[in-house]
Amino acid sequence: MSIHEEYDRVFKALSSHVRRQILDDLKDQPLTTGTLCGNFAHLDRCTVMQHLKVLEDAGLVVAERRGRERWNHLNAMPIQDIHDRWIGPHAAAATARLARFKQAVEAR
Amino acid sequence: MSIHEEYDRVFKALSSHVRRQILDDLKDQPLTTGTLCGNFAHLDRCTVMQHLKVLEDAGLVVAERRGRERWNHLNAMPIQDIHDRWIGPHAAAATARLARFKQAVEAR
To answer: Which of A16, A27, A94 has the CB atom closest to B79's CB atom?
Structure first.
């Protein structure tokens, strides 16, 4: 898989509020699939599992089996990657553009 | 449109390599649709226009008509927004986790 396809997959995985919420929930600690499903009481278990699968395919969640439980761990490295290589530089350029604009307005 | 839906739309727009490339091309200067289509010689004009439409709907590109030409401007504010509110904090947490891990390994 090329780096472009990897990034496509990560951005696609992040394009759902439910999936971003799952990652937020996993930020401080791994959680079992049961707990995660409980956090999304308005969604049926099957839907949450499908979202988890998309996150796993994008490398954002790593699952670990312990007995009958499935523990879901956040892997934030792909997020850091798109941050460092794409989002960060664009955000910095936006900030710099805004600063230049402010200077130009003030210099009038 | 809620903030969640807005973010969904921005991440979705960024989930295509061609669309990220268009934004990269617009980073330093606005370009006409004709020039952009020329930059993607392997794609037909109609496909590039569809990608531009997705970027426009996500607020990432603002089009300006000058006579018969259509100039496309990058609007990086939505990128800065997802950077500041979502990507940045997750990337920072990943860096902090890695630093703690390194410390733990070195303390052994």
So the answer is: A94
Of the pLDDT bands very low, low, confident and very high (cuts 50, 70, 90), residue A59 is very high
Q: How distant is the Cα of B67 from the closest Cα of chain A, in angstroms?
A: 26
A87 CA to chain B: closest CA distance, Å?
A: 7
CB atoms within 10 A of CB A72: 21
Rounded to 5 degrees, φ, ψ at A65 are -90, 130
Domain range annotation of chain B: 1-75, 76-108
Whether A83 and B88 lie within 8 Å, measured CB to CB: yes
- Which ipTM did the prediction report? 0.90
pLDDT of B70 > 90? The answer is: yes
pTM, rounded to two decimals: 0.91
Q: What is the pLDDT of residue B58?
A: 97
* The predicted structure's pLDDT at residue B102: 85
State the fold for domain A1-75. Answer: Arc Repressor Mutant, subunit A (1.10.10)
Contact flag B27-A97 (C-beta cutoff 8 Å): no
Angle between helices B3-14 and B45-57 (to 10 degrees): 150
* Interface contact flag, A91 B77, Cβ < 8 Å: no
DSSP A14-60: HTSHHHHHHHHHTSSS-EEHHHHHHHTTTS-HHHHHHHHHHHHHTTS
Confidence class of residue A97 from pLDDT cuts 50, 70 and 90? confident
